[in-house]
């Protein structure tokens, strides 16, 4: 478990819990390279070992005495360096400690010469021996090593002088120093002060001497690690030594193969134990840049099309193929923007919402060279603000969506539009449900309120609505929101926005880029719903997790006067009174009412009003007016059947029973029936559900025909 804390505070910021091993720790240590090597000798150890073996060689025609044989190649600076590097400093430390506690005299041990244990006397003798061997170096590296050992001896002059003082007072042979070594000690001290202070506490001074000698040896080995590669490249070495070096380097190649023992176990572990299979080949991938030679042209590149990319080192063609069919055109990125939503991250409120939306324009120049790119202004990454001045360089962002549909063709009359947006709740996300959002939202103005009050407070001023007209965008000044908590007719997790256009409002027309801009790809009316900044809360965070499942649009229009009228004699004008069934109506005469705007909509209900003119004012209405006719009993005898045209067919085709509409309306006054001019016609409801195929028929597709049963009155009417 890792606990991360802020450097400036003691508060825990986050706790990171691990319930398993990291990827690096899952690998078994025994499978790591170098965990076990068959041959562990280093380069310097191999050379030093060869030098030891050379002393055992007996030459056929050359006799070397016992004193000369050990000096064979020993004065070569490379052999001196590898001799020093081959010393195990850990073993030397253990030997010095063992000698310190085992000897009767901590400075003099009669077994020094006979034992393999390293002692201070032997180590000082080795320093002396190295100075003698490097007295005539072969390269600059050898010269630097000589100076290094020389400086170490001078630094240890006090400890060495004290030690040699004790050796000199004993009867043990102390002839371990060369003239060069003694001259260094004399150079560092005009008078060698042998013993007074040093002998007082021999145990403490012996431990100090051991530590100093170990540190000196370590310094010499570190220096040699840097100087040996330089000496190997100096080209001033003895040919016989060079042959030794070449032999060791060749052996190192074999040694590397021998030491793959653990790596072989690694392969065995994964292939045989874990049954892991090697991953298949992954083909190389590239980005292909195409430059069109004809603007505005779309080209389809079929799947599998091959492209050559030169040749490889074997003079074979490098071929790339398209993974899937590609559509290529000359589209370019012409603008980039960053969007930033500022939030008060230091707020202690349980719900922190964005209070604005800033849109920043990022400079884009297609195919710009480096000079042009250098002149571009840097912008914050993803719109994040680093300084308050960055905010003023941005503008308020316009977020929202648009609805385009033929149902919005509304030219006249009193028009009501209802937009219902159905959301889809997401599992585990409370803010994808409208009711839960209202529960989480803070109350307006720090007052307690229920979900309905919060709904109207937030959603009543959340959107800006506008529609397309002939002169531009027409802004809807007021709309009414609703949800299931405020209106039972609205489904759960749905939002309904309703607005009303009076008769004097302009006609809603088709979208035109030259008039409205925005670059929509349509030729029908468009309704824009934009997020609106308000005094309560910027709406983005409230809505951002709501997923729209469907949008439905319903319109209701009253007072449509732009109608298409026909009877069996020809077209009629609705601007002046007319006789709907002709001047001499008879059974089978018809009257047709059509509307070009209606044919673009899937109707659920329709009715129209007629105002009759020249009706008799006689009491008893048409029953008294035609009292001399046996076929006429009352006003209700003047009827017509109603049909509706849908998908190019009159509906119903053969209705059983036939539904009739009365042609005239009447009322009772003092017990007498009187005719009234106004009459409303409502076609039979079941036949008004028109399929979407209405869009495939003529603009006069929706018409209503009246067939009078008994007509003896020729009156004129006017469609309201």
Structure description:
The strands form nine sheets. Strands 18, 19, 20, 22, 23, 24 and 28 form a seven-stranded antiparallel sheet that branches. The protein has a four-stranded antiparallel sheet with strand order 10-16-12-13, with no helix packed on it. A four-stranded antiparallel sheet has the order 14-15-11-17. Residues 1-17, 106-114, 191-196 and 685-720 have low confidence and may be disordered. It is elongated and about 165 Å long. The longest helix is centred in the first third of the chain and has 31 residues, at 202-232. Strand 25 and strand 26 (672-676) form a beta hairpin. Helix 2 packs across helix 3 (77-85), helix 2 (43-54) packs across helix 11 and helix 6 packs antiparallel against helix 10 (202-232). The chain contains 19 helices and 29 strands. The protein has five domains: 2-31, no CATH class; 43-246, no CATH class; 336-396, no CATH class; 400-558, no CATH class; 564-719, no CATH class. By secondary structure, the chain is of the alpha+beta class. Helices cover 28% and strands 21% of the residues.
Descriptive terms for the model:
720 residues, alpha+beta, 5 domains, elongated
């Amino acid at each position: 478990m890792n606990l991360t804390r802020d450097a400036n505070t003691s508060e825990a910021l986050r706790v990171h819990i691990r319930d398993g091993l990291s990827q690096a720790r899952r690998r078994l240590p025994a499978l790591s390279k170098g965990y076990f090597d068959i041959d562990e000798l280093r380069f310097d150890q191999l050379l030093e070992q060869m030098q030891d073996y050379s002393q055992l060689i007996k030459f056929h025609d050359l006799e070397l005495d016992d004193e000369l044989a050990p000096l064979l190649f020993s004065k070569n600076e490379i052999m001196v360096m590898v001799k020093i590097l081959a010393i195990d400093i850990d073993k030397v430390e253990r030997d010095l400690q063992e000698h310190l506690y085992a000897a009767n005299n901590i400075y003099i041990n009669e077994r020094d010469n006979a034992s393999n244990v390293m002692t201070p006397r032997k180590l000082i003798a080795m320093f002396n021996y190295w100075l003698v061997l490097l007295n005539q170096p072969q390269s600059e590296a050898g010269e630097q090593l000589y100076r290094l050992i020389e400086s170490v001896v001078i630094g240890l002059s006090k400890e060495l002088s004290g030690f040699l003082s004790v050796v000199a007072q004993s009867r043990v042979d102390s002839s371990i120093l060369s003239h060069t070594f003694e001259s260094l000690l004399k150079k560092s001290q005009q008078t060698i002060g042998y013993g007074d202070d040093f002998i007082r506490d021999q145990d403490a001074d012996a431990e100090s001497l051991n530590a100093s000698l170990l540190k000196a040896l370590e310094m010499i080995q570190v220096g040699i690690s840097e100087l040996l590669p330089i000496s190997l490249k100096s080209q001033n070495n003895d040919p016989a030594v060079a042959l030794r070096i070449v032999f060791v380097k060749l052996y190192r190649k074999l040694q590397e193969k021998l030491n793959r023992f653990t790596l072989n176990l690694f392969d065995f572990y994964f292939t045989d134990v874990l049954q892991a299979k090697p991953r298949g080949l992954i083909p190389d991938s590239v980005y292909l840049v195409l430059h069109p030679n004809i603007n505005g042209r779309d080209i389809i590149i079929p799947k599998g099309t091959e492209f050559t990319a030169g040749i490889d080192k074997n003079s074979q063609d490098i071929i790339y193929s398209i993974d899937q069919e590609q559509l290529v055109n000359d589209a370019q990125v012409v603008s980039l923007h960053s969007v930033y939503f500022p939030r008060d991250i230091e707020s202690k409120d349980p719900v922190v919402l964005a209070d604005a939306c800033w849109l920043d324009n990022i400079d884009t120049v297609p195919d710009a060279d480096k000079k042009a790119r250098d002149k571009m202004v840097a912008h914050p990454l993803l719109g994040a603000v680093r300084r308050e001045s960055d905010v003023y360089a941005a503008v308020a962002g316009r977020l929202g969506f648009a609805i385009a549909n033929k149902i919005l063709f509304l030219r006249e009359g009193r028009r009501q539009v209802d937009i219902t947006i159905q959301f889809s709740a997401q599992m585990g996300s409370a803010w994808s449900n409208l009711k839960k959002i209202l529960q989480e939202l803070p109350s307006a103005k720090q007052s307690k309120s229920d979900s309905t009050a919060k709904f109207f407070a937030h959603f009543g001023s959340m959107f800006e609505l506008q529609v397309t007209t002939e002169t531009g965008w027409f802004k809807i000044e007021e709309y009414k929101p609703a949800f299931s908590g405020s209106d039972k007719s609205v489904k759960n997790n749905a939002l309904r926005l309703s607005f009303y256009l009076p008769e004097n409002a302009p006609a809603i027309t088709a979208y035109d880029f030259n008039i409205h801009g925005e670059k929509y790809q349509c030729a029908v009316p468009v309704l824009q719903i934009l997020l609106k900044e308000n005094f309560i809360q910027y709406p983005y965070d409230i809505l951002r997790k709501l997923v729209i499942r469907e949008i439905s649009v319903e319109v209701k229009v009253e007072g449509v006067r732009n109608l298409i009228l026909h009877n069996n004699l020809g077209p009629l004008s609705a601007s002046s009174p007319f006789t709907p069934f002709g001047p001499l109506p008879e059974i089978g005469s018809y009257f047709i009412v059509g509307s070009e705007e209606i044919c673009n909509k899937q109707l659920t209900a329709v009715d129209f009003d007629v105002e009759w003119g020249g009706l008799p004012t006689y009491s008893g209405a048409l029953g008294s007016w035609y009292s001399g006719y046996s076929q006429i009993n009352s006003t209700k005898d003047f009827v017509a059947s109603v049909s509706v045209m849908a998908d190019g067919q009159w509906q119903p085709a053969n209705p059983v029973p036939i539904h009739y509409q009365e042609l005239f309306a009447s009322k009772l006054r003092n017990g007498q029936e009187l005719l009234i001019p106004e009459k409303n016609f409502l076609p039979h409801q079941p036949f008004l559900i028109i399929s979407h195929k209405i869009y495939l028929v003529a603009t006069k597709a929706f018409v209503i025909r009246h067939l009078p049963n008994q007509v003896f009155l020729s009156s004129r009417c006017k469609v309201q």
